[in-house]
Design a protein that fits this description.
Blueprint lengths: L1 H19 L1 H19 L5 H17 L7 H13 L7 H27 L8 E14 L4 E10 L10 E6 L10 E9 L12 H7 L4 E12 L7 H24 L1 H12 L7 H9 L10 H21 L1 H6 L2 H19 L4 H18 L7 H14 L7 H16 L6 H4 L8 H32 L1 E2 L3 H26 L6 H22 L6 E2 L5 H15 L10 H12 L6 E3 L5 E5 L5 E5 L3 H10 L16 E3 L2 E5 L5 E5 L5 H7 L2 E4 L11 E3 L1 H7 L2 E6 L2 E6 L58
Parallel strand pairs: 3-5, 13-14, 14-15
Antiparallel strand pairs: 1-2, 1-4, 2-3, 4-5, 6-7, 8-9, 8-16, 9-10, 11-12, 12-13, 16-17
Helix pairs in contact: 1-2, 3-5, 3-14, 4-5, 7-8, 7-19, 8-19, 9-19, 10-12, 10-13, 10-18, 12-13, 13-14, 15-17, 15-20, 17-18, 17-20, 18-19, 20-21
Length: 759
């Protein structure tokens, strides 16, 4: 009925336009045919997930305060009340359903923020800490702990972080569940190192981490209170079991092969060295060591295949029982247990939801791989964790699956599987089909995920196709089956030979990766492009893959515009640390050089954003800069005087001479420098970059003054800054000298994000 009404409505529009403009009538006729095809193929449901995600984007990109949860729910309810009156207007009904989904997405994001909102440490603090270890990740040196805080100095519960992440060098005797007392140096979670860069503070907020830092001195282990809840005890026990299995696997293999093998099973990646991480990334297979879609699919597939094969051996079961559905149920239970044991990471959870939906489709006799099932998985994942939409894990995993589902008819390799294929033996044809299928799926996945990977990491691995083609067979046929078998044998203490055999396959994977990493230009660093270009390319991916009709070719337009914007990014000439400790300035050679002492992690982020593949230690100081104990001065390539002031005694002179003043001190109120990036400016704007354009310097900042976002310490306090007007959203902030304020700035040293959570 809906299909007939839609066709009739489009027919009326076609006739009306054809009478006035014949060309427009042809276009509308094409749209009508495509619309009818979409309804026949039931493809409109997938767009509900897109609308839901748009509501989440509006929340994160548009709100500037504390929105009401009731408002979007009421709006969705009112729209839902109009749907019975739109039954005869299918286009209006579709738009109403999309608007309802968008309001529900906005409500989901609002509810999520309210659920996880907690105190965030306002400034660097050193004080006694009492708390219980929730999680412990062993690293090459020491460990990283997640601690549930009971007391921290004299801070009250309204300002004391409920959970903190700290590092400690002597954690050999500690284990999850221990209640400890120690001296801690904590600071607020670091914000973005550059405008548009990765914001660790946002990720920490949604993990309910209110501070990061380190433990100093000795740690005292105290008795556990009897009032500890069972859920916490269970989580600590699971993490302790993960650490025990990690050590068992590493002991069975040793070296980096053992560390990688353990990460593949337990998700604990702390023992993998930086060099090994770089090798895996250069080969394009770092996704293998991050518990995500590949692990969930392979684990579920191995369990599904084993159970189905065992049941098929039994004649009665094969003839009387629905063994395929029984295998799917067991696989669902097994993959859920594996996700719990691997730490229930955000990426693993989203992959679990996708896998469960696919297996659930088998139970109801529906195709496992379909856009409808993918949309259901996306809706569940976004309803649980709306913030995931902004991260690379969600974008890359769903982008890859979307591309694979859309291209499945093209990469099935049906032609080589037919009987009577000429002189090719059947076995050889099957091998060729498997190779072609692996290469095709890898290529499709890389193309689908390329916009998100380059936006978040600013790198391209040209030989990733080769790396995945050579290593994925090892992972699929040897590593993951060994992992499943090892976990089954672990309770019987018969797992050591299995881990040793798994280590051999992992060594082969590392050997291949090392060989590929040795190629010239195995990693290509490209300049960072803006969120607008990413949005266009993401829209193109959706439009090119969701429709079943020729309407998909509409996606070529945003794809072309997005690629053009990404190919011509705005490159900044000056990067300023969020604390004013240092800067990077483009010299006359066109490359960045340092001024002052920017943190190494921050400098690395600046280099990647600039498309510079140099290592941090290879970046020289700015030639021609004159430095002393009070600061540095230089002349930029376009002839501007720039000063980096480290001592307040030099502020008066630098204010009079410099056109661009950078300082971690507060500039005096009468400072005459045209551009002042001082302590007050950085506190309200964060990391800053400057592009030296012909018509004057253009500033970009990591945050806007007056913004009240939940992952900053000012969320729970009344802001003393003026709230920006809507015009401020589209123009760079104008730096000005602000009155001096008391209070210590946040210390940028200590715990910096290592990019691990980006994977």
């Amino acid at each position: 009925m809906a299909q007939a009404r839609a066709a009739a409505a489009m027919g009326r529009i076609t006739r009306h336009l054809a009478a006035r403009r014949p060309g427009a009538g042809l276009v509308v006729a094409w749209l009508r045919t495509g619309w009818t095809r979409e309804i026949e193929q039931r493809r409109l449901f997938a767009w509900i997930a897109v609308a839901f995600g748009c509501g989440i984007l509006v929340f994160f990109l548009g709100t500037r305060g504390t929105p009401s949860l009731l408002a979007p729910l009421v709006a969705a309810a009112l729209l839902a009340g109009t749907t019975p009156f739109l039954a005869s207007r299918p286009i209006g009904l579709a738009l109403a359903v999309a608007a309802i989904a968008a309001f529900l997405g906005f409500a989901a994001a609002t509810a999520r923020v309210q659920r996880v909102s907690g105190p965030i440490l306002a400034r660097t603090t050193i004080a006694p800490l009492l708390g219980t270890i929730e999680g412990l990740d062993e690293r090459e040196e020491g460990a990283r702990l997640i601690i549930r805080v009971e007391r921290f100095g004299t801070l009250g519960s309204e300002v004391r972080p409920a959970r903190v992440r700290v590092s400690y060098r002597k954690a050999n005797t500690l284990k999850p569940g221990d209640r400890i007392a120690a001296t801690a140096r904590l600071l607020p979670p670091p914000e973005a190192a550059r405008p548009g860069g990765y914001d660790f503070a946002r990720d920490a907020f949604f993990r309910e981490i209110g501070a990061v830092g380190s433990l100093v001195g000795k740690i005292e282990v105290r008795p556990m209170p009897e009032t500890a809840d069972r859920q916490f005890r269970l989580a600590a026990a699971v993490d302790a079991a993960r650490n025990a299995l990690t050590r068992r696997i590493t002991d069975a293999n040793g070296g980096q092969a053992g560390a990688v093998a353990a990460a593949l099973v337990t998700g604990k990646r702390g023992l993998i060295s930086g060099e090994t991480n770089d090798i895996l990334r250069a080969a394009g297979i770092y996704h293998v060591v991050s518990i995500s879609g590949l692990h969930m699919v392979l684990a579920a597939g191995v369990v599904f295949w084993l159970v189905r094969a065992l049941l098929a051996i039994l004649p009665y079961a094969a003839l009387q029982w629905p063994i395929k559905k029984l295998a799917a149920i067991v696989a669902m239970v097994g993959v859920t247990a594996y996700c719990v044991f691997s730490g229930w990471d955000i990426a693993a959870e989203r992959s679990l939801i996708m896998t469960l939906v696919m297996l659930g489709a088998i139970l109801v006799d529906r195709p496992a791989l379909s856009m409808r099932n993918l949309a259901i998985a996306a809706l569940i994942a976004l309803a649980r964790e709306p913030e995931g939409l902004l991260g690379p894990s969600f974008q890359m995993s769903f982008g890859a699956v979307t591309g694979l589902i859309a291209c499945a008819p093209l990469i099935g390799g049906r032609g080589l599987r037919r009987d009577g294929i000429g002189l090719l033996p059947r076995a050889f044809a099957l091998v060729v089909t498997a190779i072609v299928g692996t290469l095709a799926t890898t290529l499709v996945a890389q193309i689908a995920t390329a916009p998100f990977a380059t936006y978040h990491f600013q790198t391209i691995q040209p030989f990733g196709l080769v790396g995945n083609a050579l290593t994925l067979p090892l992972v699929s046929l040897a590593v993951m089956p060994s992992a499943v078998l090892g976990i089954l044998a672990y309770p019987f203490a018969l797992d050591q030979p299995v881990w040793w055999a798994m280590g051999l396959a992992v060594r082969g994977m590392l050997t291949i990766s090392t060989w590929i990493a040795g190629f010239g230009h195995a990693v290509v660093v490209i300049p960072a492009f803006g969120a607008g270009a990413l949005g266009l390319m993401a829209t193109a991916l959706i439009v090119l893959t969701f429709p079943a009709s020729s309407l998909r070719w509409l996606g070529l337009l945003p794809a072309a515009i997005g690629i053009a914007c990404a190919a011509t990014p705005d490159r900044h000439d000056i990067y300023i640390d969020r604390e004013g400790a240092g800067a990077a300035i483009r010299d006359r050679s066109g490359r960045l050089a340092t001024l002052g002492r920017p943190p190494s992690f921050v400098l690395g982020q600046w280099l990647k954003a600039d498309g510079d593949g140099r290592k941090v230690e290879d970046v020289p100081a700015f030639q021609g800069a004159r430095c002393d104990r009070l600061g540095c001065t230089l002349i930029t390539p376009d002839g501007r005087a720039l000063a980096l002031t480290t001592d307040k005694r030099a502020l008066g002179e630098d204010c009079a001479r410099a056109e661009i003043l950078i300082s971690r001190q507060s500039a005096p109120s009468g400072c005459a420098a045209p551009i002042i990036v001082d302590r007050n400016f950085l506190q309200s704007h964060g990391a800053t970059s400057i592009r030296l354009a012909r018509d004057g310097p253009a500033l970009a900042t990591a945050k806007r003054p007056g913004d009240l976002v939940p992952w900053r310490a000012n969320w729970s306090r009344k802001s003393t800054e003026a709230v920006a007007t809507p015009s401020d959203l589209f123009s760079p902030p104008k730096p000005r000298a602000a009155p001096d304020r008391t209070g210590d700035p946040s210390d940028p040293s200590g715990d910096e994000p290592d990019g691990e959570s980006l994977q």
